[in-house]
Description:
This protein has about 1550 residues and is an alpha/beta fold. Strands 44-45-46-47-48-49-50-51-53-52 form a ten-stranded mixed sheet, with helices on both faces. Helix 3 crosses helix 5 (about 175-195) and helix 19 (about 710-715) crosses helix 22 (about 755-775). The model is unreliable at about 1-25 and about 475-490 (pLDDT under 50).
Amino acid sequence: MSNDAINQSGSMANLAFSGNSETPSRCTYEGQRWLVEERDACGVGFIAQRQNFSSHELVEKALQALTCLEHRGGCSADSDSGDGAGLLTAIPWELFHSFNLEDTRKCAVGMVFLPQETQAAKASREIFEKIALEEKLTVLGWREVPVQPDLLGIQARENLPRIEQVVLTSEFDGNELEQQLYLARRRIFKAVQNKVVQSLSSEDFYIASLSSRTIVYKGMVRSAVLGEFYTDLKQPTYKSSFAVYHRRFSTNTMPKWPLAQPMRLLGHNGEINTLLGNINWMMAREQSLSHPVWGSRFDELKPFVQVDNSDSATLDNVLEVLVRSGRSPLEALMIMVPEAYNNQPSLNNYPEIVDFYEYYSGMQEAWDGPALLVFGDGRKVGATLDRNGLRPARYCITKDDYIVVASEAGVVNFPEESIIEKGRLGPGQMIAVDLETNEILKNWEIKQRIALRNPYGEWLNNYRQDLKSLKGAYSSNGNGNGNVLGSTSVSEESIDRESLLRQQIAFGYTTEDVEMVIQPMAQEGKEATFCMGDDIPLAILSSKPHLLYDYFKQRFAQVTNPPIDPLRESLVMSLKVELGGRGNLLDPKPEYARRLKLDSPILKNAELEVIKHSSFKTVELSTLFEIASGPDGLKAAVHDLRSQAAKAVLSGAEIVILSDREQNNVAIGTSHTYIPPLLAVGAVHHYLISQGLRTKASLVVNTAQCWSTHHFACLIGYGVDAVCPYMALQTVQDWWADPKTQQFMQRGKITAMTLEKAQSNFCKAIEAGLLKILSKMGISLLSSYQAAQIFEAIGIGADLLELGFKGTTSRIGGLSLKELAQEVLSFHCKAFPELSVKKLENLGFVQYRPGGEYHMNSPELAKALHKAVDGKQYDHYEVYQKHLQNRPIAALRDLLDFQSDRQPIPIEEVESVSDIVKRFCTGGMSLGALSREAHETLAIAMNRIGGKSNSGEGGEDPVRYKVLDDVDASGLSPTLPHLKGLRNGDRATSSIKQVASGRFGVTPEYLMSAKQIEIKIAQGAKPGEGGQLPGPKVSQYIAMLRRSKPGVTLISPPPHHDIYSIEDLAQLIFDLHQINPKAQVSVKLVAEIGIGTIAAGVAKANADIIQISGHDGGTGASPLSSIKHAGSPWELGLSEVHRVLMQNQLRDRVILRVDGGLKSGWDVLMGALMGAEEFGFGSIAMIAEGCIMARICHTNNCPVGVASQKEELRKRFNGMPEHVVNFFYFIAEEVRSLLARLGYRSLLEVVGRADLLTTRAEAHLTKTQALNLDCLTNLPDARTNREWLQHEEVHSNGAVVDDELIADAEIQAAINNQSAVTKTINIVNTDRTVGARLAGRIASQYGDNGFEGQINLNLMGSVGQSFGAFNLPGMILTLEGEANDYVGKGMNGGEIIIKPMSNANYDPAQNVIIGNTCLYGATGGFLYANGLAGERFAVRNSKATAVIEGAGDHCCEYMTGGVVVVLGKVGRNVAAGMTGGLGYFLDESGNFPELVNKEIVKIQRVTSSAGEQQLRDLIAAHAERTNSPKAQMILNNWHSYLPKFWQLVPPSEADSPEASQEQEKQLSSV
């Protein structure tokens, strides 16, 4: 990404004013460029020679490595312009011999991209030379870099800059020279930015590198072309002792030349998902930064970050400031990308490293997100991995002092006998080569050296304070809740019920908030679960008053970075907060450690008092203002509050408290109201940043209007450090003190508890909810989430945005400040009318109630629809249609209407109903959420009409593949005896087979039975979250489908553990096309801002279909805050995706499907005009088969048997396929009549024709008239060119090894005759998913387990990703060499054997042989690997058995069955979420128990003889197959090794003979 800047307009520059209105609230902000235009991921690495010996051979090897990473990159729509590739090397001085350089230490070279136009290029050189001269640099001359443009793709050639090098000399050398060059480059960049020459822009004139040590050759090329395009790279005189290489996969297909990497110091693979927060904090910090080396010139370097720059560029910019100010790149990256040091047993021996991280954690929030960072500054070259280890990083070291680090193993060819070590970087780890001392430095050694430079521990002990210990000192009775400094503790004051009620009403509490949100948290200590989706109008469309929080939707991770599991992986997460000023990052001093440490941002009243009386200077400001000043008073009050806060900080306040509590006898009442706390916080935070004061103090808010997890997330996300929710705590107290509650406690209906416990429960629930919201975005630390503004505003106008929420996307405009003031006053007036109020109002936002908020899925609607589908009369459907037409405005599409450019036509001329219904699908509802009857009924109905049903997660019963031929006259069949209304010819199979994150039931036969395979990235109702099927719902039947045991809880993790980036998704799509080349692959995304660029990446990753789900889809169970506050309407998502794909010429690559609350033909047509070709129906299809919207799915008690697994309830299911068929025919009829009215003959003719949309004249909103729907109606003109609607049937993987295998006559014979065959082949890392297509071929003939033959494949070399995926019984793959990530993914049987080459000299037990996430979702088979595995070995393993010699973190995570034996060291968090199967771990160092997540599993020695036998047999099999020396040694010394093994036993296996001695005794006594 361009490092200095691309598009240097100010942060709000994308404010688009719509022409038809003058009101400022109609202008919109489309979002930062990196959010809406740029996402990328890549292949990256470095190669170095430890002795600093330069050679041309090293450069050749780097180019070879790049070519082997080609599949990790992307190509533009012309399939030839790469997204970017590049090298960063030492300067090859011999290339510059014509300049007669005497002392190259005092020389520098710049690599410059100039404009093509001659005059502009001349002007650019002149600016450069003028500033160089002023900086006392002598320009010796320019050199035109020889290139071969004819090798470029069309897009790359059109954008090709003039590429030249400039050679300079100086009187300085070393660091002084680098600083001089850095200053010059920053000045040149600013001169261009400030338009010194009118025609120049920073996109045309870009300095790729300017250094006395390094040079960057990069461009918009494919890896294979880089060395040909730049002929310099082929010159024998081009020599270097190191090279950083990078191949980019951008989701944006308009890549510019400057965007290629490496940057000036970094090559970055991954995504920084805290970017906006990091940028905001860096801007806030600019005032307080300084360093002696810059003297008075520091300001000339600013600004360090640009709002619109990409994550990689911004990271590189900030890293460069630190490095040029004297830090090594290693130290700078430790500060910016710290590891998860809290629960790390390995750090027990390195307290100084922990002190280093602790000291900087209060000054620099972590740059969080999946990232492999490779860096080189000419003196050191190295790599580091993000705290969660979410990108692969393999390395190898050779005898002749080469070290290679890369995203994959096998990218550089070395003779096996010359290799002395093969390893991998684990989470947060580093490796580096110091070219000056000729050392290879490993993780702890690097960090210890850096940490020992200053006595950080001493600084922390002397200066930092901890709230816990302060509380102990203040509280008189030791529980932190006694008399604080003599005053009564706030929470013990008795509350007057009537005034509490008035306050609650004024601050917007409703009965639902108290009874469904606050009380369950106080009672259970966790958020309440709810079901179905969010079917009420958006806050901006609603006629009911909403809190400001409701206008903000949480963003979440999908594809480009993964969500985290906050329950099973809490060890990488933290809610720690530090209050007080943040010191100067560039120049550490002891006093910068003076901060107040909090374990959580949620404060109780007593804790807030402690803070007020601490040694930190606190100032409390009131957010109340007089009502008399009317709606305009709010603006004045906010401005006043901002300047008061700035004044307080200038006068030395270290903690500023914003409070709406009573102060100095001013309280909320008939004369005063409040600034909404979210606006107060956002406005003060941004104002303090603009004044350069934000890092000098912390913000705390003491507010009544904060009780749900979403409220806390918004406040923290917009800049507050800590929150005291005083009224929520009073509400808990009111509930606790209620005589009813006390009676329930006495009777044991509610767990008895103290008030302290109830309030702690509430806080604990909020903390867990906050972790969940952070983790949805893939963020681990609260400090990185704070002020990161990870929201989209829906319904916020420009003046409000500018005042409090700068930088937040708001695409449709909305409330102005004045309109917001009116909404606040409407709450206020309810609370203080002159009559008395007895109870809170119930607005019905969650549960439908007569007179409450409108729900789209109301019981009346269900009744109307049941009546319509029961008979076949269209007039009953018209009653249902009327019900929808007369509804209040509930969705954005309700503000639009059709306007045709043609005359109506007779309905007979429109395509038939049977053509239209083929475009319909049902939603991905799992058999587990739905009953078997409901699930099969939907499938049969969709097969009848030629539409598609979706299996959901959890496999499919092979009995459903059969075509029924035994149906009797009453519509019953012995094959499916539980269904009614069947016909001969029906099939109950689902055309779309879903692959979700749990991979339950994903077997080769299941995938081969699919017409489409859907990768479910996220779910509209709860994006970024996993799910679980509780043990009681896992019946014998479901266990059979999901390959597990009845009664075992089955967890689907939040992320797909093989999709952490766009190139990972490309790999899974490749895997699925590999096993079933005939099935289309669809990717299901949820609408949010930025989904367009993600979809562009998905299209380039070879998907056939992209499905866009709205936020309002249904769910079987989810926390309320997810249902209500995450995701956007599908109208915004669909139009954004369609627009971006059209602009990037990628629209023809994919079919677009939309779902989320579709209910009628009118909805279908709306979707079509915005770009959809297919349409998904979820909740409404369930209603059609009998669902009555009881909204208790999550309890398993569905009264009509649609969403229950209980036998007796399922008998009540009355649905028939015919009901569903009738419903879809009605919808299609309505579509036909609308098309006829518009004058079009088919649905396809109107797809993408947004020009036929207009705003609905009679649509009136209560809150604002200022909505701007241009983003829905201004789509690319599609009136004439319709070619993009012609799609390839299924995308191909191209030529693959498996095709040659299948074509082999001997293999064909072995398959057909079920006989044996053996083949030997050589393999390289670009051969991916080897074996899968062969497995698919066998499964289509014999099913999962029917093949009786044997196919032995012997492979030699470094094999690519997904080796042996979906392997079947009868296939034995033996690899001599090494493998990359995802070995044995989805494996169903057979064997995979991996061992080092026979001429290897290293000890296999100490070296890495397979990558991350192996055996993911495996349903059977055996894996033997003679070496170490990466992270997440056997994640979600169902039934496979494996023996390996060591593994990384999270081994056996979410395992539900199978056996894993590990003969060596493992990382932390072993067996998190493991509910089934057994693990055996050899513990030679005695620290294994502290690495285990003991929440579910029990850890014990191997004591039963069945367990001992199982272990011994597996180790013997491993020794026999892999010749493992370690296995042999263990067997030879069995009695001394057996006591060193631990056995991990989840409750479901406690009674098995292998784990239980009791069981064994009983068996032997029989």
